[in-house]
Amino acid sequence: MRILLTGGSGLYGHYFLRQNPDPARLKVTAITRRATALPAASHSVPMPSVGDGDVWRVLLHHHRPDVVVNAAAIGDVDMVAREPDAARAVNVDLPLNLLALSHEMGYQFIHFSSNAVYGGDEAPYAETAPHAPCHTYGAMKSQVDLALREAADRTLIFRPTVGYGWPPAGARANPLSGALQHLHAGRTIRQVVDQFENPVFAEDVAAVLWQAILRGYTGELNVGGGDAHLSRHQWISSVAELFGLPASLVHTARMADFETVVPRPRDTTFDCTRLQRDFDWALCSVIDGARRMRDAGSSAG
Ligand SMILES: NC(=O)c1ccc[n+]([C@@H]2O[C@H](COP(=O)([O-])OP(=O)(O)OC[C@H]3O[C@@H](n4cnc5c(N)ncnc54)[C@H](OP(=O)(O)O)[C@@H]3O)[C@@H](O)[C@H]2O)c1
User: Fold this and answer.
1) CA nearest ligand 1 atom 3, residue
2) Which atom of ligand 1 is nearest to the CA of 91?
3) Among 11, 68, 286, which residue has the most ligand 1 atoms within 8 Å of its CB, making it the best to mutate?
4) Does the beta carbon of 160 sit less than 6 angstroms from any atom of ligand 1?
5) How far is the centre of ligand 1, averaged over its atoms, from the C-alpha of 1 (Å)?
6) Residues near 113 by Cβ (< 8 Å), separated by ≥ 6?
7) Ligand 1 atom at minimal distance to the Cα of residue 70
8) CA–CA dist 242, 236 (Å, integer)
């Protein structure tokens, strides 16, 4: 099976590349701007400009993929609000182009969506819940999802919630890895008590994605972890000590205290019934996920 992947140097893409269950049979080529940041022995080609549709068409015709996985995005919500045009090129135009090419070439198109498509006042969110994004990044994700729903027989809207794990070199920090860095340096951090989710370990996101590919799974799938309605403060303070770090450095804050950042949805906890049913999947708690992350060691990133 031939698989093309964008975003291979990001958190989820990197775990996906590392966890290939059968590299001899499942040939993944990463389309990337940073080949040096990929796991060792990854196959890659340079990423064309996202706006150059003709070059993408030639590239895809050359590789004749069975599956295209789009994990590339500008995921920094505040940056997307500041620079919406640049973000739209990556977050909307690129996936819509890959969707259009999937019609032409017949590959399965898997696109990473986000918990940011939801409004935050009606958790838990199943795949059928209405979208009500409260910022530009969420609106961009929602726009692409709605287009993919028109081709649900050969696309997958793959929607992880907030993830954690060891970020690859040069990738942006995730809530846990960023907090650990500060705590290691002995700095106090402020974590909000009024934003909630069920965070998911990136290793599990990758494992579910591989299963989905192997089964030709299509439609829409919400992928979260085992702790419903967990606040950022509960999350970080409950796992700090697993890494030998003092929970006392994790102070409380409220979203309104961070005046310069774009307001986030209050609670985007996922209803993971479909994931558990269709994949016979046991949801992992942040405690168990952090333990696995710790035991794997930061060299895993
Ligand atoms: N992390 C989360 O908590 C989370 C939660 C919900 C949804 N998601 C979604 O899951 C997907 C993967 O997220 P992630 O956190 O793994 O991403 P990430 O670490 O932010 O990495 C995204 C990748 O996108 C590519 N990229 C970034 N800016 C680009 C640009 N201007 N032009 C072209 N490519 C660019 C880069 O790949 P290369 O350098 O290899 O080209 C980058 O490594 C995204 O669609 C994201 O929206 C993430």
Assistant:
1) 162
2) 45
3) 11
4) yes
5) 24
6) 141, 144, 145, 157, 158, 159
7) 45
8) 10
| pLDDT score of 259 | 84
- What is the distance in A from the centroid of ligand 1 to the CA of 73? 4
pLDDT band of residue 25 (cuts 50, 70, 90) is very high
By most ligand atoms within 8 Å of CB, the mutation choice from 4, 29, 33 for ligand 1 is 33
CB neighbours of residue 214 within 10 Å: 13
Domains and CATH numbers, the chain: 2-172+200-224+270-282 (3.40.50.720)
Confidence of residue 260 (pLDDT cuts 50, 70, 90): confident
- The average pLDDT across 270-284 equals 98
Average pLDDT over residues 213-225: 98
Closest ligand 1 atom, CA of 164? 3
Give whole-number Cα distances, 169 to 8, 35, 45, 57, 123, in Å. 12, 12, 19, 30, 34
CA of 248 to the centre of ligand 1 (A): 32
pLDDT over 80 (residue 300): no
Q: Would you place residue 56 in the very low, low, confident or very high pLDDT band (cuts 50, 70, 90)? A: very high
Share of the chain above pLDDT 70, in %: 99
Q: Can you tell me the mean pLDDT for 267-283?
A: 98
C-beta of 162 in contact with ligand 1 (< 6 A): yes
Using alpha carbons, select from 245, 258, 136 the residue that is nearest to residue 192.
258
